[in-house]
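Researcher: Go.
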Amino acid sequence: VVRSLRVPYCIASSGDYDKMRVTLGVTGLLPLFDGRVFSATDVPRAKPAPDVYLHAAERMGVAATSALVIEDTVPGVTAARAAGMTVIGFTPLTPADALIDAGATVTAARMCELAPLLDAQGVTTQSAAKQ
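Model: Structure:
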């Protein structure tokens, strides 16, 4: 999914940089986010406050209200919505109804479901570009 994106993207996490280096490194995703990783340690308040999302949007040069977030926790959905962002809930760790109740527009249970949802939200992906 990340490789298919044709728009600016980043990670805005409650985790610290060491944790993100480990988790992104283990998954092989770290190179895809080089220079685009933001932590709640950079801002005064962590999620559910919107600070890390607003910081990431500013650093990426994107209006918060134009940003779309994929989030797997209720505090994260709450933070993104407080920042004025649209949210797709990712449900492997949190029930879909909890993410919807927190403000997610739609949910996905598997990574393969994300590209069509992103396309439906107007996010340009490689699959949309081929149509």
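Model: Strands lie at 11-13, 37-39, 68-71, 86-90, 106-108.
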